Structures are given as structure tokens and as C-alpha cells.
Description:
The mean pLDDT is 93. The protein has a four-stranded parallel beta sheet. It has one domain (2-80). It has helices spanning 10-27, 43-49, 67-71; strands at 2-6, 36-40, 57-60, 77-80. Helices cover 37% and strands 22% of the residues. By secondary structure, it is of the alpha/beta class. Strand 1, helix 1 (10-27) and strand 2 (36-40) form a beta-alpha-beta unit.
Amino acid sequence: MNIAIVDDDKIELETVEYFLRFYIKKFRADYENFIHIETFPNAREFLCYFNPKIYNVLILGSHLRGILKLIGNSSVKVLLW
């Protein structure tokens, strides 16, 4: 599973990544080797790498919901915080 986290606030980006990794290690340790997490410090960088065939989950800061229009109807699951 490939997860992308996008936020232009460095502290929020690192916090979400930390808690996600902690959760996986504590509750889903059997799958830890199968989960790849990438972080992106801004929407522009993420959109350069985005491919709906690569990412399964996209975690966005709520102020970045405009990205959803740009990625169109893809099978990627999106979480806003």
C-alpha cells in the first residue's frame, strides 16, 4: 500500500506521518513492510509525482482540498484533516 501525505505546514506534515507510522507499528505490525509512506511539502511537488496507479491513500490538510479537482476521478482514497 502506498500512502501520500500532503501539507504545506511542516509541523502538521511530520505529525501526521509520525502518528501514522506509530499506528502501523503498534496495530498493524504484520503489514509494516508492505506500507510505503511518502510526504510532500506542497501541492505542486505532489502533483508532479501523482499517479492514481501508484497511490492507494492520499492524506491532505483540509486547506489543500483544491487538489481533488486536479486529480479527477481516481480510485485513490482521500482523507482530509
